Amino acid sequence: MNVIIDLCVVPLGVGVSVSSHVAACQRVIETSGLEHRLHAYGTNIEGPWDEVMAVVKRCHEVVHEMGAPRITTTLKLGTRTDRDQHMDDKVSSVERLLDRGE
Amino acid sequence: MNVIIDLCVVPLGVGVSVSSHVAACQRVIETSGLEHRLHAYGTNIEGPWDEVMAVVKRCHEVVHEMGAPRITTTLKLGTRTDRDQHMDDKVSSVERLLDRGE
Amino acid sequence: MNVIIDLCVVPLGVGVSVSSHVAACQRVIETSGLEHRLHAYGTNIEGPWDEVMAVVKRCHEVVHEMGAPRITTTLKLGTRTDRDQHMDDKVSSVERLLDRGE
Amino acid sequence: MNVIIDLCVVPLGVGVSVSSHVAACQRVIETSGLEHRLHAYGTNIEGPWDEVMAVVKRCHEVVHEMGAPRITTTLKLGTRTDRDQHMDDKVSSVERLLDRGE
After folding, report:
1. ipTM value for the complex
2. What InterPro entries is this protein classified in (chains A, B, C, D) (predicted)?
3. Cα A65 to Cα A60: distance, rounded to the nearest angstrom
4. pLDDT tens for each residue of B27-77
């Protein structure tokens, strides 16, 4: 079962700036080799369920190891059995409709 | 690592009513033996990370087996290393402040 | 247009404990007179769209006034045009299925 | 009060494909003139709170007008009072750390 997720990890108790923690998560994601894309409010990741979820868990572990005593994460998870779908397909199918004025 | 999550599984392509799918997820959660509580827009579950995440995966599998070709789930995940915290603590610490008029 | 939301306001830069900020949001919600219910990872609120959204905005304003320099909120919003639905209906329709063993 | 949001509108009761509804929301967003960026699991939008929230409401109205009897939306909302921040800043501050190997 493949999954496309949108991951937003928020450390608490580390002050206002969280970019170093987000960067640490990005390195976890890059190390995984999974397809991913950073945006302004999270990161899209796609791949086999267990691999993707291992990344999410590793992000929590790494952010705690950096000293964050508390983390609250928001995650969206999409799966489908009717056909394969990739992150790029989702964006391009919407853009195609917009280009055609539909 | 313990986690408190808020799980909201939304099947697509099965019509407007999704209560039978939500009920199926509730049975998955109950079978797990994990502490949980249903509310109007999701279910709080707490326990060890891997057990809780196995429940989330099983919910996706079960809802697909029921015929839903597509699922989009929203998940919040909270972990902390500074102290133990349970779902009831979170609610009661807020209620205590409200009672004291703070 | 009526809406049922699930609101989770997270202040950043105020330390690990956020219960006083959550309690302040609860008071904003109670003052609004809207139907609501606190759970372990947010608060369900229902009512007319503009009234509910005014509460969400007021929560951000109040939490900033308490000194939080940054807030990240997670919100789920449900609307439907096919019929009226209330928070209690959502919970009880699932519980009815569970009781019937469906 | 400026806000950066991540908006994901999910119509129910319209079948498996939701790209035409997402495209309709994109047109609402483009008409607003607000800064925005589509990704694989939502759209980032930034601007003054009331303008951004008017777009979210208009999306619900338009998707219902297209025939969707039910909508469930996931929204993240970020505000800060310590300094101005834009969507691009959030991405580039993380990328800068990654480039520096921090």
Report:
1. 0.95
2. MTH1187/YkoF-like, Thiamine_BP, UPF0045_domain
3. 9
4. 999 999 999 999 999 999 999 999 999 999 999 999 999 999 999 999 999
B26 with C74: Cβ contact below 8 A: no
Instruction: State whether A18 and C10 contact (CB < 8 Å).
Output: no
Q: CATH code for A2-99? A: 3.30.70.930
C34-75 pLDDT per residue, tens: 999 999 999 999 999 999 999 999 999 999 999 999 999 999
CB C1 within 8 A of CB C49: yes
Whether C2 contacts C87, CB under 8 Å: no
**How many whole angstroms separate alpha carbon C94 and alpha carbon B30?**
13
pTM, 2 dp: 0.96
Distance from CA of C26 to the nearest CA of A (A): 19
Q: Assess B10–D contact: CB distance below 8 Å, yes or no.
A: yes
Domain edges within chain B: 2-99
Of B42, B33, B48, B43, give the one whose Cα is nearest residue B3: B48
Measure in Å the smallest separation between the Cα of D76 and chain A Cα atoms: 8
SS (H, E, C) A7-21: EEEEEECCCCCCHHH
Those residues whose C-beta lies under 8 Å from the C-beta of residue A27, and which sit 6 or more positions away, are D98
